[in-house]
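Exercise 7. Given the encoded structure of a 116-residue chain, write a plausible sequence.
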């Protein structure tokens, strides 16, 4: 089941199709470090969460907070659930119908990565 991240972002954001340069908000080093942490979350989520498929992920720039956020789209059967995570481990947003089991798995996985 192929999807565009942009369609899912409309659930959470006022998407105006504006192209924003992250380097207007963060240094290259800050961007690289944040992406490294988000990549670690992604690897761990793919490995640890087995009841759901991590279907896609994409990075967003939160201009209000000058930070990157990664959207993770999980799928189980015909249901899709989105979780947006900041590099510091905070869940910035999530699907309103996100199962408690999936949220617990995501939070536990984030905690493990943060301890490493």
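Solution.
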């Amino acid at each position: 089941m192929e999807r565009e991240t942009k369609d899912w972002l409309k659930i959470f954001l006022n998407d105006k199709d504006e192209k924003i340069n992250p380097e207007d908000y963060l240094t290259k080093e800050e961007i690289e470090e944040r992406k490294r942490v988000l990549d670690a979350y992604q690897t761990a989520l793919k490995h640890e969460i087995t009841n759901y498929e991590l279907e896609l992920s994409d990075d967003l720039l939160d201009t209000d907070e000058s930070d990157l956020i990664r959207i993770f789209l999980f799928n189980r059967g015909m249901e899709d659930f989105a979780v947006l995570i900041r590099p510091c481990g905070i869940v910035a947003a999530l699907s309103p119908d996100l199962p408690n089991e999936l949220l617990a798995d995501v939070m536990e996985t984030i905690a493990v990565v943060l301890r490493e």
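Remark. The chain has one domain: 5-115. Students should compare their own answers with the one above.
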